[in-house]
């Protein structure tokens, strides 16, 4: 009888309602990506039908061939991967160092400095477009990947995220014990703090990588040579003002999204772990 009661409790109406809600939410979230695949496999005349098609067609290869004929798709993918990886690695290192400093070290003016960093999160990034462009032009970095990588190496959100995670996840007792054993601050950071904060690194890495991969405005401003275009700027060239081939555009967009899905799936476990730890602590 006890086993039956336990089995019945697992299928309680409340849990079934929760699972139903989560399933509907997941399907709703996946539908735009699915419909992008549908459009990537159709011709314009099929896309413009009423009602529109909701099943994949047979033109995925031909539409993607049109993309390859109009832009250097794989070259743009490589450029974007290089830039996004460089920015992500640099951000993880610098923001985690700053987070460790603000969470575990004591120095004069720490609170004021951290508050000033948080204030910058309220400033729209578009306001810094002209000053940044002036600096990049002065340094001679136009059409150079440094124009995108260097300004993106550190951000206020990354410092805030790492500081909050380290503050909750790394006990002071471990830091003090390491100092008593003669460890320097950098060795404590590298050998103790970093291994304990891998979920936070994965979460911040996914966020930064996706942000850089999808960035359009700043690369459009500083990267004018087609040989250094990132994928979002390259896809812009598919928009012909006279004739919009939606199948071709959606095909390029679909394949440009696939690397993001792969990155998320690779670090999905650590990402969920960081969210779960935060939920338990709160």
Plain-language structure description:
By secondary structure, the protein is an all-alpha fold. It folds into 2 domains: 12-58; 61-281, MetI-like fold (Orthogonal Bundle). It has helices at 2-10, 13-40, 44-47, 60-70, 73-104, 110-119, 129-139, 146-149, 156-169, 172-180, 185-196, 198-214, 217-222, 231-236, 246-266, 268-281. The longest helix is centred in the first third of the chain and has 32 residues, at 73-104. It starts with a helix and ends with a helix.
Outline the secondary-structure elements.
Blueprint (H helix, E strand, L loop, with lengths): L1 H9 L2 H28 L3 H4 L12 H11 L2 H32 L5 H10 L9 H11 L6 H4 L6 H14 L2 H9 L4 H12 L1 H17 L2 H6 L8 H6 L9 H21 L1 H14 L1
Helix pairs in contact: 2-15, 4-15, 5-9, 5-12, 12-16
